[in-house]
Design brief:
Chain lengths: ~350, ~350
Amino acid sequence: MKPDINIVDVAQAAGVSIATVSNVMNGKGRVSVATRQKIEKIIAELGYSPNLTARNLKTKRSDLIGLVVPTMQPGRLQDNPFYWDLLAGVEEGARDRKFHIILAGIDESTETFSFVKERRLDGVIVVGANEGSQAVDRVLEMGLPAVFIDSYLADPKLLQVYLEDRKGSCRATRYLIEQGHRRIALLIGDIPLERIAYYGVLYERWLGYRDALDEAGIAYDPKLMIKLPTSLEGGYQAADRLTEMGDVTAIFSFSDVSAMGLLKRLRELGKGVPRDYSVVGFDNLFMSNYTSPSLTTVAQNILEKGQEAVRMLLDQIDGNPIVKRQVALPVELIVRETTGAPPV
Amino acid sequence: MKPDINIVDVAQAAGVSIATVSNVMNGKGRVSVATRQKIEKIIAELGYSPNLTARNLKTKRSDLIGLVVPTMQPGRLQDNPFYWDLLAGVEEGARDRKFHIILAGIDESTETFSFVKERRLDGVIVVGANEGSQAVDRVLEMGLPAVFIDSYLADPKLLQVYLEDRKGSCRATRYLIEQGHRRIALLIGDIPLERIAYYGVLYERWLGYRDALDEAGIAYDPKLMIKLPTSLEGGYQAADRLTEMGDVTAIFSFSDVSAMGLLKRLRELGKGVPRDYSVVGFDNLFMSNYTSPSLTTVAQNILEKGQEAVRMLLDQIDGNPIVKRQVALPVELIVRETTGAPPV
DNA sequence: TTGAAAGCGCTACCAT
DNA sequence: ATGGTAGCGCTTTCAA
């Protein structure tokens, strides 16, 4: 590590005071063109770069934002190619504005978020916190700029980014109905149905499903709800449940990975898709066009979700006026090969 | 944001000097049990947490490590469910030792790595840098603790983590040969074959393939090398090339995602797997067991790769003696359904 | 066992 | 247009 060169070195080399060097770096104060150029030259020659630690101590900002993802356990996230894009979106947005991302995989239950205070983070982006979770409370009580992704928190003051989940779900269900399906199963996740309202994203999608049913005058049947995780394995197991259901001809799964599990098991069971069952997923992962048959799904732009969140956060940090506190990003039904008319 | 409470506040509340508070926090100096307990009580009551920015300015450490991933372009990484696990491994390892991760998606060509100096990172983990790349040079010239993942750099002093790529590749190829295959295509990536030695991972795997051929006394045929990206789309296109090759009965693809693209297109072309072609991938992604047919592949533990890298880095930062500078993690051939005997 | 005080490198205010 | 200097909150000698 070469001997650190600091602002004093630059000032001496340029024959000016450190205040002037500081002014040049920050574009503050009036500095003559001549001195500015001289200093800039010296900075380049010396390969000087300012010590952000010192600067931050003084300015009380860190130009750092925390990306908080619930329990970064292998098991949980492994099933989410999803998060990577989100991360890329956030990172990219932050980089454009000279911010950096600190990654914090947290353990919901034990985490105190002390690092947020200790590192003087300028703000945080929290992914998938549910109403009443520790994470939300903690963040709020620090009164720190924050944006919540996919969280559906009731408090209207909170900045949030989510999808048109309900609309997307309704559209997917409606499409199945239009194809002639009447008995449509739903893979809703490993939760008790009576508490679904506590699981924002799942709840919205469940509501969308019901919207479509209502439109078509089809009765909602709780027996069609499959309470298994929206994971590969969950989807795999769901296929067995599905085939035991008798009159069901279609299934809407709340994630593409679970839909892939479904496809796998249905094939093993000798069931044709869409001949015997139509299948719809949600996410439009990069590989959803490469399954066989390719997956009909509700597409979201995950990268954009990350970008939008960071944009909102940085605006808040910079004290820009906040136009919209809640942003619902658009979704789109992508019809591919896993859907068709029900068997006669 | 509640008014920041600092070490002075604690000292006053406890009726001691800030030096003593500091000692208590850091377990340094001898402090009487009585004062220690009193101070700890006050700290808890006040909800004080030290300002790491100030601490770092003084100690010249940041307890921050940079995770450097080449060009975080959507296009590139979208195809890598891979990276997420790596990240999880690194984050987890860092967290255990009170370090945090700063994520830096960089643009190989333009990046100056100034943030490394500016933020006084204690070290960096670089993923997938090739010999002679900007990234490597830059990192080295700062003389900063660093670990390179999947980089195959010649300099024996560098800390590196990679796989038993050659061995894994050899084993996979050997398995295909044992099944009776003689003409085995290789999907090696979008690179000129004569420069393959510059692409560490690809080179090693290519060598492994040749090892197996040599063992079996089969001549190496450059015409069997398919120079398409190891991505979904690359695999998809490779299937067309494959079917034009005539006497080829198997293909070994250097990533699972590309193998998935292959499976997709082969099915479209009416080719059976493994009836007409045997297919082997590399990575053992979480979904590789859920393709149809399920994918035979060379498994690596990506999470462990991240953990190992961070362990090596932190040891170096802490000045622990370095036992091994290069670590090759084990791989394992997982035989599933995409491989079998060649058609007669 | 405890405290006083000197910085770490920078920004920003106030002088000049 | 430029410079002197007081901190930001902490760690770490050195003295008491």
